[in-house]
Design brief:
By secondary structure, this protein is of the alpha/beta class. The chain has 13 helices and 9 strands. It is an enzyme of class 2 (transferase).
Length: 364
């Protein structure tokens, strides 16, 4: 663990990296970050929050600290999920500007210089979201989510550009805390607003935070502020991530609008009803209709691949989606059902995030 040297500049930028069993990724993540820090010539501290890892994360951070151009240290806590890991790092940050960065992300060399120039040019702007691309060299199992991404946000991804996200257009472009820069006070307010109930490992760690910031402050999405994400590389990791994605999907959208709540419940019920219908049709002697329904369901399931191809999704990612779809369906559905049970109160509770919300100064 490094410590500030006598006479060292006070950090202008604090970087918070939540890490769970990411020792194999951290050396390259921190090396890329170091290059970006040198390129930007910005006084920086980095706080790696070890979220109850069972690998040698502290040793990986200590080794990287020896050559890092700034203060690099590790904090440890029991495994409580990324939300509380990020919260711990934000609380410990010394700078007014905080960069949230995931442990598998390679910051592009000029990214920090670019975004800090933007901050200097527009001091009133308080939040910046990076454009993050998935590593094209990742194995197929890591590219599955490229297709859903190009379905939901294909219009933006076909032509990435500077875009200001607000409460009105929040769902029109990809965003996340994978690499996200904001003023510390803005992050604190948003995290307090989105504070989770229950098991913090089974709640959305970013959507409600970002929605709050977009509604109050606006978020600048800027392709010049960029990075590469390295996805999971094992089938086991993919399946566990898919299960959690189903649960977090519910937490992100349940109760935000009536239509979204209805869609979530329909997604949970549809497989059961379809299977029951097909079984009944076979039993009553209508196999042709049953097979027609099965073929229609498969065609509908593959439709996202067609849409993603139109939106210029890479061929390997489309192949990953087609190959991985049979493995994806059950764990994601199971995650949805789990999410509806865990977050059932969200379906009947009015969410402030969908209506007028108090400014930060009124919540203090």
């Amino acid at each position: 663990m490094s410590s500030p040297q006598p006479g060292a500049r006070a950090p202008r930028l604090s970087v918070v990296i939540p890490s769970y069993n990411s020792a194999q990724w951290l050396p390259s993540t921190l090396s890329a970050l170091a290059d970006a820090v040198r390129d930007a010539d910005v006084a920086t501290e980095v706080i790696v929050v070890d979220d109850g890892s069972t690998d040698d994360t502290p040793a990986a951070v200590t080794q990287a600290a020896a050559s890092f151009p700034g203060d690099l240290r590790v904090m440890t806590q029991p495994n409580r999920g990324r939300f509380l890991a990020r919260w711990a790092g934000i609380q410990a940050a010394a700078a007014d500007l905080v960069l949230l960065l995931d442990s598998r992300v390679l910051v592009h060399r000029g990214a920090l210089r670019h975004v800090l120039a933007g901050v200097a040019a527009e001091p009133s702007r308080t939040a910046w979201n990076a454009v993050v691309v998935t590593d094209p060299a990742a194995p197929l199992v890591g590219l599955f989510w490229e297709v859903p991404t190009h379905v939901f946000w294909g219009r933006y991804l076909r032509s990435p550009r500077v875009l200001d996200l607000t409460g009105d257009n929040f769902d029109e472009a990809p965003k996340g805390t994978t690499m996200f820069l904001a003023r510390k006070d803005v992050l604190i307010d948003a995290f307090e607003f989105a504070w989770p109930d229950g098991d913090t490992k089974l709640v959305s760690d970013d959507t409600k935070v970002l929605r709050r910031i977009a509604q109050l402050e606006g978020i600048r999405l800027d392709p010049g502020f960029s990075a590469t994400y390295r996805p999971r590389t094992t089938l086991r990791g993919f399946l566990a991530h898919t299960l959690d994605r189903g649960t977090l999907f519910v937490d992100s959208y349940a109760g935000t609008t009536l239509a979204r709540s209805v869609i979530l419940i329909a997604l949970a019920l549809a497989p059961i009803l379809l299977i029951a219908l097909v079984v009944v049709l076979f039993v009553v002697g209508s196999p042709a209709i049953a097979w027609a329904i099965c073929i229609a369901v498969v065609a509908l399931a593959l439709l996202p691949a067609v849409i993603a191809a139109f939106n210029r999704c890479r061929g390997r990612a489309i192949l990953a989606f087609v190959v991985g779809l049979p493995l994806f369906v059950f764990p994601f559905w199971l995650g949805l059902v789990r999410g509806i049970f865990i977050h059932r109160e969200s379906f009947v509770r009015s969410r402030q995030s969908t209506g007028a919300i108090a400014p930060r100064t009124e919540r203090r």
